[in-house]
Specification:
The protein is α+β, with helices and mostly antiparallel strands and 447 residues long. The protein has helices spanning 62-68, 79-88, 113-125, 131-150, 152-164, 179-183, 187-197, 216-224, 274-286, 291-299, 330-341, 350-367, 371-383, 390-399, 403-413, 427-436; strands at 21-24, 30-35, 41-48, 92-98, 101-109, 203-209, 247-251, 257-266, 306-312, 317-326, 420-425, 443-446. This is Pitrilysin family protein.
């Protein structure tokens, strides 16, 4: 019998984000190509760095309305006809809009890419922006705002943003606009916004999928290369500024549950502490058995789930403890959350750091296994002002985090005494106990 020597199995090398090929179209659009063999659904994102602070102050929401009308028809194809043409190609068209800009998204089988790309370009560059469509989306947005106000979790997040940022920061207000500004938006406003702000200057086109045998640059040049906008206006990205400490209770009489937000202004991904904060956030409130969830959910039974997250913007950001709690335990939950957030007596431990790093490095290959996942991440990096190599550098930085560095970064950002509190719940049961807890400046408003 022949005995075979068991081969030595080396640990897998660190995973890397897929490489990118970059070029520039004749009109200045940046083209990023990610060849993903075997991915037969191509994902294309056209990223326009049009920050929401570019909106006229009295027409905030016009960016959202304009964007939502892009696939409602073009100057060449009316709404239903355009939708049918997209459907014929098996293509999906979507829109994502945030404080730093917007994305038009196309998903299509690779064999249908040519015609679908023509329609994709047509929607972005030649939208009809018909008055009926604009008016309908205005009404839908107003209904969406009312629905959000009725939802305690959404209302808590909205009010928390007002608390964390100064009133003149665009981040302090809803991305889709406030009721009075949305109601003022007309088709003429949408058309003017499109003419002024949409254009190739500062745009990035990202294409991911199996691009074997496809001249993506030629296709992009043919469909988007002729897009030129005289007088396109660029707007600088506004840095959200920190507001002061706030304590707010939005009254929901008779509510058996209260929604909590507890946090403050924080940093963005370019801060050298970001990797440490990512690890610390996971240990404190990002995992099922994180410190907050283990105590408030598993041991106390106060909630179905509570988390702490660091939410970066293009510049600046915020952190927040958030969760829904039974009304009768909300004050105790706030007390315990504040105690848990203070890590001076219990710094982060080595096993917490190891678990967090293993999670982020271990899930990356799964998160970016599809062309859509790759394109999403690439687009997010563009809108955050980050280079294509950001993710690899970020994962490397995570591997260098220590318990000491995670604790130091966390304590430099998370100041429990200075954190703002927003609660949406029954004021008759919560107001005085919250004041007794130290929030003597608590303001109660009608829900």
């Amino acid at each position: 019998m022949t005995t075979l020597t068991r081969p030595e199995i080396a640990p897998p090398p660190p995973w890397s984000f897929p490489p990118v090929e970059q070029s520039r179209l004749g009109n200045g659009i940046e083209l990023h190509r990610y060849h993903r063999p075997g991915q037969q659904i191509v994902a294309a994102h056209l990223v326009l760095e049009v920050p929401l602070n570019a909106e006229p102050r009295d027409r905030e929401g016009v960016a959202t309305i304009t964007t939502r009308c892009l696939d409602e028809g073009t100057r060449r194809h009316a709404g239903e006809e355009f939708a049918e043409l997209l459907e014929t190609e098996g293509a999906g068209f979507g829109i994502e809009i945030g404080l730093s800009g917007l994305q038009a998204v196309l998903d299509v089988p690779v064999r249908r890419l040519d015609r679908a790309f023509e329609l994709f370009a047509e929607a972005v560059t030649e939208p009809a922006l018909a008055a009926d469509d604009v008016d309908r989306h205005v009404q839908l947005r107003l209904a969406e705002i009312e629905q959000g106000r009725a939802n305690s979790a959404t209302r808590a997040t909205t009010e928390f943003r007002r608390a964390v940022f100064t009133a003149d920061s665009r981040a302090a207000r809803m991305n889709g606009g406030e009721p009075e500004t949305v109601a003022a938006v007309t088709a003429a406003d949408a058309a003017a916004y499109h003419v002024d702000r949409y254009g190739p200057d500062g745009a990035t086109l990202i294409v991911a999928g199996d691009l074997t045998g496809i001249d993506v640059e030629a296709l992009a040049e043919r469909t988007f290369g002729g897009w030129r906008v005289e007088g396109q206006r660029r707007a600088a990205q506004q840095r959200a500024e920190p507001g002061g400490r706030t304590a707010l209770l939005v009254d929901r009489p008779g509510a058996v549950q209260a929604d909590l937000r507890l946090g403050a202004y924080a940093v963005d991904r370019t801060d050298p502490r970001w990797a440490d904060l990512t690890v610390a956030g996971y240990a404190m409130g990002g995992a099922f058995l994180s410190r907050l969830n283990k105590v408030l959910r598993e041991e106390r039974g106060y909630t179905y789930g509570v988390r702490l997250g660091f939410s970066p913007l293009r510049a600046g950001g915020w952190y927040a403890v958030q969760g829904s709690f039974r009304t009768e335990v909300l004050v105790d939950a706030v007390r315990e959350a504040r105690e848990l957030l203070d890590v001076s007596a219990r710094p982060f431990a080595a096993d917490e750091v190891t678990d967090a790093v293993a999670y982020y490095t271990g899930t990356s290959p799964l998160r970016f296994a599809t062309a859509d996942g790759v394109a999403d991440q690439a687009a997010a990096q563009v809108l955050a002002g980050l280079e294509p190599g950001y993710l690899d550098a970020s994962l490397a930085a995570l591997r260098d985090v220590t318990p000491e560095s995670a604790t130091a970064a966390y304590t430099s950002v998370v100041d429990v005494a200075g954190a703002s509190l927003v609660v949406v719940g029954a004021a008759d049961q919560l107001a005085e106990p919250l004041r007794a807890l130290g929030y003597d400046d608590l303001v109660v408003v009608e829900g």
